[in-house]
Amino acid sequence: MNPIVHTIVIGICSYLTLIVILRLSGKRTLSKWNAFDFVVTIALGSTLSTALTSSQVPFTQSVTAFVIIILLQFIITFTSVRSKRVKNLVKSRPSLLLFNGRYCEDTLQRERVVRAEICAAIREKGITDVESVYAVVLETDGSFSVLPQAGSSNSALEGIAGIPGPT
Length: 167
What we know:
Layout: H1 3-25, H2 35-53, H3 59-82, H4 84-90, E1 95-99, E2 102-103, H5 105-111, H6 115-124, E3 135-138, E4 144-147
Antiparallel strand pairs: 1-2, 1-3, 3-4
Helix pairs in contact: 1-2, 1-3, 2-3, 3-4
Pfam families: DUF421, YetF_N
Domain YetF-like N-terminal transmembrane: 13-78
Keywords: Cell membrane, Membrane, Transmembrane, Transmembrane helix
């Protein structure tokens, strides 16, 4: 088969097959990225790329690779919801970057975040005074959550590395 025709046919079939597999695998496969999701996405992209550019890899082998990657992702996420040990291996914990208007310098350094990034996240929320911010959290997907004020229980901060215990 002509390489161009092969790329067109396999490209269309692989793309449609990947969409069906992703839809069947559920929303978790397409969620915001953490390191684990990034690896799965790169693996899927690499597999699709190989399917498109290599006439030596049969379509069925590419589909099998898609299914294996998605199946492994499902098994890991299924297990991580049920096992704290697996969850700790696969996912990182959110980190406290700013608390009660004060920067958490050790965490900033460990997470390689600069103050300017925190200020940008705070400005995005329409806040102009860093000292008035209760907390800024670096989430597991790399995004920043800005909490302008303390709540009565602060339950949304449960499990975040660096949160001081009750006083």
